Amino acid sequence: MGLWPWLTGALLLLLLLVQLSRSARFYAKVSLYCALCVSGSTLAAVICLLRHGGRTVENLSIISWFVRTFKYMFGLRFDIKGRQKLEVDHPCVIISNHQSILDMMGLMEALPKRCVQIAKRELLFMGPVGLIMYLGGVFFINRQRSRTAMTVMADVGERMVRENLKVWVYPEGTRNDNGDLLPFKKGAFYLAIQAQVPIIPVVYSSFSSFYNYKTKFFTSGTIRVEVLDAVPTSGLTVADVPKLMDSCHQAMRTTFLRISKTPQENGATAGPGSQPAQ
């Protein structure tokens, strides 16, 4: 018996599982997303090297184009309010909430010009994905070594002013899908005060109406994004970090809870802790 009947049978079985099992559909979509990340990163890396020859923030326009096409594969829409607040011609620190592996699509949808991300060092070793992040100018921080992280942050502060860069940070420090915001870490606020640049908060609505890892749910939907007013740091010192951090957290949390209660395009309501429609 030849190989083709076995392959055909396996493919038909896989298609049947995807149709019958929500978990199978979930893992199939997540696998597709990961495959797109790897293949897109590989192709984008080649184009970045051919066009710019190496590591530069200018590569981000290429990377962004590739990632922004992913949403069409999953039926996702981004409704962004206040995008113009990000298009400023001066350095700033942009902070946003962090929910899942899908955040990269949201990041690239809103990413302004000359904006780089701060990411954990482990991502640098993720094959083509790590390579494209490196080529895009991402700053990598070893979170296990606080002295090294502080040195990198100091360098970031100097470079963002010298090179007129915007820096995107996830102040929660890790992914969080519990329907609320985690407490913020201080790094982004130290960075903004050190460089005396404003902070611009960006809030993404809850993904729970279309994506839920615990219940293995992944369908189409709309992500609402609000860019809040810039928070100035001119004249602030390190002593002002706790107050600055708390005020940004409160403003972002209020916005997150408000926009996450708005009915989503797929008919579900993405309120904190809500479960997706079955």
TrEMBL record:
Record-annotated Phospholipid/glycerol acyltransferase domain positions: 92-207
Coiled coil: none
Domain of life assignment: Eukaryota
GO MF annotations in UniProt: 1-acylglycerol-3-phosphate O-acyltransferase activity
Transmembrane segments: 123-141, 188-207
Keyword Transferase found: yes
Signal peptide positions on this chain: 1-23
The entry's keywords: Acyltransferase, Lipid biosynthesis, Lipid metabolism, Membrane, Phospholipid biosynthesis, Phospholipid metabolism, Signal, Transferase, Transmembrane, Transmembrane helix
SUPFAM superfamilies: Glycerol-3-phosphate (1)-acyltransferase (SSF69593)
GO biological process: one example: phosphatidic acid biosynthetic process
A GO CC annotation given for this chain: membrane
Pathway connected to this protein: Phospholipid metabolism; CDP-diacylglycerol biosynthesis; CDP-diacylglycerol from sn-glycerol 3-phosphate: step 2/3
Enzyme Commission (EC) number: 2.3.1.51
Catalytic activity of the protein: 1-(9Z-octadecenoyl)-sn-glycero-3-phosphate + (9Z)-octadecenoyl-CoA = 1,2-di-(9Z-octadecenoyl)-sn-glycero-3-phosphate + CoA; (11Z)-octadecenoyl-CoA + 1-(9Z-octadecenoyl)-sn-glycero-3-phosphate = 1-(9Z)-octadecenoyl-2-(11Z)-octadecenoyl-sn-glycero-3-phosphate + CoA; 1-tetradecanoyl-sn-glycerol 3-phosphate + (9Z)-octadecenoyl-CoA = 1-tetradecanoyl-2-(9Z)-octadecenoyl-sn-glycero-3-phosphate + CoA; 1-(6Z,9Z,12Z-octadecatrienoyl)-sn-glycero-3-phosphate + (9Z)-octadecenoyl-CoA = (6Z,9Z,12Z)-octadecatrienoyl-2-(9Z)-octadecenoyl-sn-glycero-3-phosphate + CoA
Domain remark text: The HXXXXD motif is essential for acyltransferase activity and may constitute the binding site for the phosphate moiety of the glycerol-3-phosphate.
Family membership noted in the UniProt record: Belongs to the 1-acyl-sn-glycerol-3-phosphate acyltransferase family.
Function recorded in the entry: Converts 1-acyl-sn-glycerol-3-phosphate (lysophosphatidic acid or LPA) into 1,2-diacyl-sn-glycerol-3-phosphate (phosphatidic acid or PA) by incorporating an acyl moiety at the sn-2 position of the glycerol backbone.
Protein name: 1-acyl-sn-glycerol-3-phosphate acyltransferase
Organism: Panthera pardus (Leopard)
High-level lineage: Eukaryota, Metazoa, Chordata, Craniata, Vertebrata
Encoding gene, per UniProt annotation: AGPAT2
